[in-house]
Amino acid sequence: MNRIFSGIQPSGNLHLGNYLGAMRNWVDLQHDYECIFCMVDMHAITVWQDPAALRAQTRELAAGMIAAGIDPEKNVLFVQSQVPAHAELAWVFNCVARMGWLSRMTQFKEKAGKNKENVSVGLFAYPCLMAADILVYKATHVPVGEDQKQHLELARDVAQKFNSDYGKDVFPLPEPLILGAATRVMSLRDGAKKMSKSDPSDYARINMSDDADTLALKIRKAKTDPLPLPETAEELVDRPEAANLLGIYAALLGKSLDAAMAEVAGLSFADFKSRLADAAVSVLGPINAEMARLRQDPGYVDGVLKRGGEKAAALARPVIDEVYETVGFLRP
Ligand code: TYM
Question: What local confidence, expressed as pLDDT, does residue 127 receive?
């Protein structure tokens, strides 16, 4: 049986990278798979979050996911902290994963920087909680952007070590699903940097909440190079900004990079950018409008999340029972 799990942090500024790298693929996958989608607020607090803002952003993210087309009745859509099984399995995994494995995680190294002594223990243990998120449902496939690939490898290592330490095939080895033409959306200001929630410049990213004028302005101001648009993907080598904008364009249209490039080859950046802005507005505009409607109805969103949390907890409980039994905990 294939089961999909994926997660997203409610740490503010839901952006086009999250949408094209992850959420949009989730919307497609829900038709063919049993899907579980989680707002990972426990991951978010590995760095400081203002409590009121975190709560508001969690609702906003849920609204964004529903507005993007994730059907909350067909799928399980919930908040991580509402299902204690995640923390319970994460503790067991803290005792399975090795310090060396976690020390090698590039996201930890990037986020901790020179400040290793002063970051939270949670930031270090982050990948164990992520492995628990996935494996507490015995999920087999995890649709993510490219930046999460290493964390997925760690989840596989944890699953494998647990199975081999205890001599029992408890967990499947989950596979990453890295889909679409924009698996790594880059900053609009610097083609070598990932588009991220934490970039201090708002012009570096397209937020899901940007209105049409803001979208068009950010795209107009996006960094480019002096050459016209090429015809083939090979010609994008050493042109990171052009590659990024074309990848975004292809993903917005739901086309392959080659097909999208054939449409716009030879255009000036100015002309291409106006097409790109139109594509962005036509995809994000309706999502935005639906988010605005859902914002007026927090009771509905909270109800969806509560029901989702109950469904998730019921799926996770037998797995926790099996794990606790396996590791030798005395059961009541
Ligand atoms: P997060 O919240 O940073 O991002 C959510 C999803 O968006 C993708 N993404 C991108 N894709 C393409 N280009 C970008 N610039 C870009 N930025 C973000 C991410 O790859 C991700 O798929 N650790 C995870 C959350 C998590 C999780 C999990 C994911 C917790 N538990 C279990 C999968 C399974 C994270 O911080 O994603």
Answer: 98
Ligand 1 neighbour 307 (Cβ under 6 A): no
From 5, 6, 8, mutation site for ligand 1 pocket: most ligand atoms within 8 A of C-beta:
8
Q: Which one of 1.10.240.10, 3.40.50.620, 2.30.40.10, 2.60.40.720 gives the CATH number of domain 202-293?
A: 1.10.240.10
Residue 39 beta carbon below 6 angstroms from any ligand 1 atom: no
Distance between CA atoms of 184 and 61, rounded to whole angstroms? 20
Q: What pLDDT does residue 13 have?
A: 81
Tell me what pLDDT residue 12 has: 87
Query: What number does the ligand 1 atom closest to the CA of 8 have?
Result: 2
- pTM attached to this predicted model: 0.95
Active-site positions read 111, 194, 197
Stretch 99-118: mean pLDDT, rounded?
94
**pLDDT for 135-174, tens place per residue?**
999 999 999 999 999 999 999 999 999 999 999 999 999 9
Q: Is the CB of 17 under 6 A from ligand 1?
A: yes
Q: Does domain 3-183+297-327 have CATH number 3.40.1260.20?
A: no
pLDDT digits (tens, 9 = 90+) for 50-63: 999 999 999 999 99
Q: Is 147 in the pocket of ligand 1 (CB under 6 A)?
A: yes
Query: What confidence score (pLDDT) does residue 120 get?
Result: 97
Residue nearest to atom 19 of ligand 1 (CA): 145
